[in-house]
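Lab notebook page, bench 4
Experiment: in silico fold of construct C2
Operator: M.H.
Input chain length: 332 residues
Purpose: comparison with the prior construct
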Amino acid sequence: MIRKANKRSKEQGIARVQAEPFSRTSISFYKYANIVDPELFRNTLYDEWEALGVLGRVYVAKEGINAQLSVPAHSMETFRAMVDAHKELTGVPFKIGVEEAGISFWKLTIKSKRFILADGLPDNEYDVTDVGTHLTAKEFNDAIEDGAVVVDMRNNYESDIGHFEGAICPDVTTFREELPVVLGELKGKEEEKVLLYCTGGIRCEKASAYLKHHGFKDVNQLHGGIIDYKHQIEREGLESKYKGANFVFDGRAPEQITDDVLGTCYQCKGTANTPTNCTNQACHVLFIQCEPCSNEMNGACSLDCKTLSLKPKEEQRKHARTLQGGYKIVAR
C-alpha cells in the first residue's frame, strides 16, 4: 500500500502557513477504538484532512487514535462532520488549545504504529478499556478539597512548570517509566480515592486502567485533561487548583494557566518556564532552561553538548546519544 505524505520542505511549509489569510485553531483528541486496518485508516484520514488544509501530528494503531492538529478556523464544522463520519471516531471530544499563538504545525503527518501510547508492557497485560471515572473540573476540585490523592501522569519537565496543588509528580522522562513508578508511589493506597491528570487525557486513560488492574478501587481522571480544565474553570468561574503553565507538544510556547512561575532552570536554578530541546542533535533531551543560560550555553544542556552543538549537524548526528540526562551536569 502506498503511503501518502506531504513532500514540502519545512521552509516551504512554514512560508505557506505564514501566508495564509485565515486563522487556525489548535485541537487535540484521542480515542481507544478497534481499528482493524490502521494503515488503510491512516491513508483515508490523510486524504480527507490534507484536502481540508489540516496540519498536525497523528498516530493510528489497532487500539485507537491520538491526534494533535491545527485546523483552519473556518473549516471547523466541516472537520467535525468529517471526523464523525467514521464510526471509530464518532463523537470523540475535541480539546481546544488555550492559546493560539505562533505556528503549531507546518505539515500533516499521520503514522500507523503498534500503540498510540507505548507503555513498555507486554501485549494484553491489562484491559486498556476498563478505565477510571471521568471527572469535570468542579468534581476534580471538590475531590482535591476532600483529600483525594492526586497524581500527575506527565513527564518531569511538564510538571516542573505547572501542576495541581499537592500532586505526586514522578521524576520520569517517559510514560514507559511512569506506570511502575506511580504504582510504587501509591502502594498501600488501594482503598483511597485517586485522581489522575495529564495534558489531554490519553495518558490518564491508560494509567487508570493499569491501576484498576492492580486493585485500586476508586480511580478517577480529569476529563479532557488540563487543556479542557482551563476552559471549564473560566466558563464556570471556578478557582484554578492547577498552578503555573501547561506544556504542549505542538511547537507552541507553554500555555499559562495561572500567573505562577513554578519552573526552575535546570542549570542555574533560577526561575524559568521554558522547556527546550538540547541543540546537540545527538542528545535533543527536553529540559527547562532560562534565557541567560540558553544564550550562554547555545541552547545546550551541558558543556559537552554545547561543544557539539556548535559543529555541523551532520557531525552532531554521528554521535550516539551518550549524554542522556546531560542537563544534570550543571554547567554555565
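Observations: The first strand starts at residue 24 and ends at 32. Residues 321-332 have pLDDT under 50 and may be disordered.
Next step: discuss at group meeting.
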